[in-house]
Every structure is written in structure tokens, then in C-alpha cells.
Amino acid sequence: MEKLVACQTCGLVQEVDDIPKDSVIKCARCHFQIFHRRVDSRVRTLAFSIAALILYIPANLYPIVTAEYQGQHIQTTIFQGISSLFTLHQYFIGSLMFCTSILTPGLKIIGLIFITLTLDWPHWKKARTWIFKIIRIVDPWNMLEVFLLAICVSMVELGEIATIHPGRGVFSFAAVVVLTLLATLSFDSRLLWDSPAERKL
Amino acid sequence: MNEKSSALPKAHVGKSYFSWLLWLIPIAAALLCAWFVAQDIIFAGPTVTIYFENADGLQEHNSLVKYRGVKVGEVGTLKLSKDRQRVAVKVQLDASAANIARQGSVFWIVRPEVKLGALSGLQTIVSGNYIAVEPGNDARTNQFIGAEKAPIKEVKALDILLLAPKLGSLQPQSPVFYRDIQVGEVLDCRLSDDAREVVIHARIREEYAPLVRMNSKFWNAGGINIHIGLFSGANISAESAQTLISGGIEFATPPDFQTAATNGAVFSLNEKSDDDWEKWSPAIPLTSVPEAMTN
Asked: Distance between CA A80 and CA B268 in Å, rounded?
């Protein structure tokens, strides 16, 4: 079965024969990799999502920073930081932090795993599409992670007064951010409406 | 149609490698988690519970446990005990300090203290209170009763008891002088069992212990002595600036001195000295003790 595929790099439309297993196709003109559907999209999304899910646990359980200030040493997890924002009556920033740092990454990971695992299932096609739509809508808001970095930077700037060590939490959290990013990137949304037979190709 | 498609170029087919490498990512994530957990298990010492009557100044997950000024653990949670008489302080000891969790270890809270003539725990004003520990050597245990104050260190020294009708300005840490040189200090003061006298527990440093003989005389050197004579004018004297505020004890040993005092020897504390006591100057050889041996 032959298909027409446009190279995403140079735009050349070309014919693609049946691809043997474990092989890639390259553009006839620019030799960049081309694909009909993203290569290994499903497996990649699943692998990245599972890795993110695993690291989501230490990201939330371990402290993100250890601050030593006047001999006291204070460890703060993400959740403690958010609840202290609430006790300071910073409800808006508190909720924003909760949504962008805890809620959306978690939902995103679970949503992607759900979609990739149930992809072959004929039912819930609509639900999968909706979930993916929501993930797409929510995704830019995860850029608010930058806020977290801003906080870290301001704490490091306090270095004269306090000693700040990044905790295990912040490394795990950074990994979760990168992995969820890769997971959504590697997911080919066209798989949502491909029939199982087409997907095999 | 056929013409058109044959005009299109054909894509190359190449081999793809290492798609299985992808699964190394979740495996690495899992290994990282396992490493975190293993670190917590392997590098964490035992958790002990210390019961204090008052945990004032300790902060949950914040205060430290120190031994010889070095952190050996962290305070976890503070909870009221079931009978509401004590505070249960959970302490996570470091692995290197696991040996502290033994019977006989004494834990106490170091707080800033300002007493006349003595300041202690000043650093805690800035750093917050912490728990200090003096390790014991007996069987392992995880439950301790916290001490109210630092234990009196077992050092090589001469401990004597002085009986006085009243305490005057003496207090713990008041100095003990011999020829105006401090040779010891008061450890604590209490009423005698029948409440007729005050018992003062004094400690003479080891190197000066031979100065105390069974017939030595002790007197209260605190405060100011004011003599106003017709011809000599006013004569105001004090042993030292410290005795002015905190009081002190002076002693002298007669030339015909007896055997050296032993631990727990009891003397009476006179209110002031006789003139001839201060003139006594017996030659007593002092054994010099190397610095390292004194503690």
C-alpha cells in the first residue's frame, strides 16, 4: 500500500512504500526523517508518561528547598509552600500554584496514560478526544512552572542572608515538567481517529 | 493518476535503531525513586522519642539535636503525651549518631540563660533552641526522658559540701577562691534535709584539690566590706567584681594542715574571715595535671 507523505522539513510530497518493522523513512530530498504518523508515538508517550508519573511522587513528597536561615533550617515541599501562601491570604497565587504545579501535571500524566492505553478500544473515542483537547488547552498554563523557578531564583538571591539548597523535590519536579512536555510532544493526535488497522502501519 | 504518482519521488527507507532505549527513561525514573527511598532507609538513623516536661522553643521539623556542637539529628514532630503531663518529641537521629540511642543518654534543651555572673546558651537567641545530648553506653532504647537542665559533668574534681546558716548572695556558678584565685565554683545550693541549714555543693578543680584540707576554713567572700574607722577613714573592699554581684567563697588552709579533703567532705561556711586565716600561708605542693586529663 502506497501513501503520500509530505516532508515536514522541506515540504516535498513523496510516495512511501510499506515500511518494514524497525525502520525509518527519510525524505528523498533533504534526508530528514519523515513519517505518516509520528514514529512510535504511542510507545513514546506511554514511556514518558510513566516516567513522569513515577517522578511525580518524589516531586511532591520531598522538599523542593532547604533554607538555612539564622541557624534554623526549613524544608519546604511544594504543597507546604502552597499552603503557606494560603495562610498568608494569597489565595489567588496559592490556587494558581496549586493548579499549575500539582493539579495539571498530575491530570496531564494520567490523561495521557489513559489515552495511550485505551487507544485500541473502540469505545470512548469521544472521551479520548476530549481529554486530549483539554490537555492541549491546559498545556500552556504549565509554563507557569516558570513562576516556581522565579521563586527559586529569588531565594538564591537571598544567599547573603540565608543558605538555600535545592532539595530532591525540585530535581524530580523539573524532570516531571520535561517528561510531560516530551510526552505531549511525541503524541500524534491523529492516532485518536485512526482506525486500529491504520494505526498498525 | 498513475502518471502523476510515478512522477513523485520515492522516500528512502533506513533502519531504525535503539527504539528499546526509550524504556530506559521510566526505568531510570524508577531507579531514582528507589535511590531516594534507599537513602532514606540506609542513611537515616533510628527515630527516638524524648519526653520533655516543657518543649518551649523547639520547632517541628526544624530544631536540631547536637552533640559537642555538631548536628546529630533533627526534631520531627512534637506531641502532647496522652496523660498531658509531657511533650513527646520525635527525633530522627543521623546514621552516624545511631549509637546515641542507648540507655543512659541524657537529652536536654539548650535555651538562652542570663544569670548574674554567667551567660549561657547565647547562640540559641539567634539560632533557636536545640536539644543537646550526652550519650550513654547501655542497651539500645528508643524512649528517653528529657532532663530539665544539662547534667553535671562527671569530671575529676573534688566535690565538697559547705553548710551555712543562710545562702547570702551565693548561687550556682559562684566562684570559690584561694588567695583570690578562682579554684572552683558552686554547683548548686539547697536546704538541708531538716531545713535548718543551707547545703552548698562546691567543686574544686582537680589541680587545686590538695589545697583543701580537713581543717581548712571557708568563708563567704561576697558583697562589699565597708570598714569606717576614726583614723583609717573609710575602707571599702570586695574580693572581685564578680563577687560583687554573684557572691563567692574564699578558703584558707592553716600551716598545720591535715590530710587532704575527700569527695563529699563537709565544712561549715563562715560568714566572714578571721584576720589570722588570711595570714596563713602553708606550702602545699600542687600536682600539675596535664590539660588533657582535667576533663
From this structure: 62
